[in-house]
């Protein structure tokens, strides 16, 4: 359509709109030369009927989007009036009473921040709170990490784990020569979306073997062995989501050798440091063996689970580089990714984390509370396993106690899950994952009854 035609169509549609606007009931005349209704003295005329009201929305074609496979479970749960409902969907820690938990040490840190009048609400730098960044790198790589001592790490505060993955993904899409990222099959449902939107091309490597409910180590080695040299490999640092299956230290070492020998680039997602074993150091071992060999890598850290700071959205992206001058340039480019995305990160959550990490006493308090959370999850595993055994539920349920971290990948199929939701008001993701952290001694029997019924009546 040429410009004259476009103008013609516009004029015509203005005219049509004008003609079909209903006249205000009390206006004396509706001549087009009169002042617009807003100028009328009659208060009823103050809200003019919108000309657009006569037309359908310019967004009328927008289709209803599906709920998120994980967060949508909470939406459905919230709508259920049943008093026995249990939400085992999202990985969010609950107390024995089924309540969300704010750690004592977090309350204490917040109190310290509130009582400090020198605290202001200025913008943080694009890279976030400097103390927080240093302490986060120390937490994941270890205080004695050579990479930190040699200033080879570029760390930026990001919006929790997801934001760290996204910023890392966009940095790689802009500055790394290989744009393919291999993610485990299965993995956290948001990974493929985050990396695709970041501009990377996503492929999978075999990870889980449903037959053994364990690691498909052979498949993993074959698939990474066949990946093009330089490809990015996403690894869960510990407590693999959703399977709860992690490589052994010996397997990690073989994975490391393969990745380094092929020049693949590891990108660790560390969303559960401390939640797998209860030890922050043990859960960072996978990452640390890669840092120790002097090679490069990325790490996305989240404080959502291990400090219970879910809604504060606090996390960090660290890129370990070969040399300090590369790290400086990498940081300068990370800033160019972040600035147009959200300008700079929020101050409160990062201040809580920095307050806790920089003081030995609060740090120790945190590790004790963290261990207590990890232990309660492990105890839930045992209670659920025992409850199924007591009911004689068909099948081998030993994976419940073998798996690690927040989740049990039960092996229940989507029909069985739908049945448990409908008949027992138990909410979980359709892949059969349950958040052990959402269970309590009180709800274990109900869950065991539901699993028993599902397994014995639904195929
Ligand atoms: N990476 C993994 C492996 C995760 O499981 C999660 C969260 C994140 C990153 C992102 O966490 P963050 O942005 O909140 O720091 N997975 C949760 C929640 C706990 C979710 O899906 O958002 C889950 O239920 O799987």
UniProtKB/TrEMBL annotation:
Q: Which family does it belong to?
A: Belongs to the class-I pyridoxal-phosphate-dependent aminotransferase family.
UniProt keywords, alphabetically: Aminotransferase, Pyridoxal phosphate, Transferase
List residues of the Aminotransferase class I/classII large domain: 85-451
Cofactor entry: pyridoxal 5'-phosphate
- Keyword Transferase appears in the UniProt entry: yes
Catalyzed reaction equations: L-aspartate + 2-oxoglutarate = oxaloacetate + L-glutamate
Q: Which PROSITE patterns match?
A: AA_TRANSFER_CLASS_1 (PS00105)
GO cellular component, alphabetical, reads:
mitochondrion
Q: Does the keyword Heme apply?
A: no
Quaternary structure, per UniProt, is: Homodimer.
Q: Which GO terms describe its biological process?
A: amino acid metabolic process
What is the species listed in this Swiss-Prot or TrEMBL entry?
Ananas comosus (Pineapple)
Quote additional remarks.
In eukaryotes there are cytoplasmic, mitochondrial and chloroplastic isozymes.
Pfam (any one): Aminotran_1_2
Q: What is this protein called?
A: Aspartate aminotransferase
* Principal EC category: transferase
């Amino acid at each position: 359509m040429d410009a004259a035609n476009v103008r013609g169509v516009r004029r015509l549609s203005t005219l049509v709109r004008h003609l079909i606007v209903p006249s205000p009931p009390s206006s004396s005349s509706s001549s087009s030369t009169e002042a617009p209704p807003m100028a009328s003295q009659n208060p009823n005329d103050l809200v003019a009927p919108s000309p657009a009201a006569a037309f359908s929305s310019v967004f009328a074609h927008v289709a209803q989007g599906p709920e998120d496979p994980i967060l949508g479970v909470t939406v459905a749960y919230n709508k259920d009036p049943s008093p026995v409902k249990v939400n085992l969907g999202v990985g969010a820690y609950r107390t024995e009473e089924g309540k969300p938990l704010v750690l004592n040490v977090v309350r204490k840190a917040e109190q310290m921040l509130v009582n400090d009048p020198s605290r202001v609400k200025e913008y943080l730098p694009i890279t976030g709170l400097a103390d927080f960044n240093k302490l986060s790198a120390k937490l994941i790589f270890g205080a004695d990490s050579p990479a930190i001592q040699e200033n080879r790490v570029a760390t930026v505060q990001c919006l929790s784990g997801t934001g760290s993955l996204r910023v890392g993904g966009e940095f790689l899409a802009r500055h790394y020569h290989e744009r393919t990222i291999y993610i485990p099959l299965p993995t956290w449902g948001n990974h493929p979306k985050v990396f695709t939107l970041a501009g990377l091309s996503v492929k999978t490597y075999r990870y889980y073997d449903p037959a053994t409910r364990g690691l498909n180590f052979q498949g993993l080695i074959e698939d990474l062995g066949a990946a093009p040299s330089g490809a990015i490999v996403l690894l869960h640092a510990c407590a693999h989501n959703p399977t709860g299956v992690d490589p052994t230290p010996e397997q990690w070492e073989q994975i490391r050798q393969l990745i380094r020998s092929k020049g693949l680039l590891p990108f660790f997602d560390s969303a559960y440091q401390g939640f797998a074993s209860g030890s922050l150091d043990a859960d960072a071992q996978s990452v640390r063996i890669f840092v120790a060999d002097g090679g490069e890598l990325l790490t996305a850290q989240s404080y959502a689970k291990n400090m219970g700071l879910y809604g504060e959205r606090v996390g960090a992206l660290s890129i370990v580089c070969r040399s300090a001058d590369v790290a400086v340039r990498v940081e300068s480019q990370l800033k160019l990714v972040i600035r147009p995305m959200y300008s700079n990160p929020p101050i409160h959550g990062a201040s809580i984390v920095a307050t806790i990490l920089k003081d030995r006493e609060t740090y120790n308090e945190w590790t004790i509370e963290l261990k207590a959370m990890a232990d309660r999850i492990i105890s839930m595993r045992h209670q659920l396993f025992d409850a199924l055994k007591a009911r004689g539920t068909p099948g081998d349920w030993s994976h419940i106690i073998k798996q690690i971290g927040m989740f049990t990948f039960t092996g229940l199929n989507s029909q069985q899950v739908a049945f448990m939701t409908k008949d027992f008001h138990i909410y979980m993701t359709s892949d059969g994952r349950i958040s052990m952290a959402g269970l309590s001694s009180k709800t274990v029997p109900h869950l065991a009854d539901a699993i028993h019924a599902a397994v014995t009546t639904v195929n």
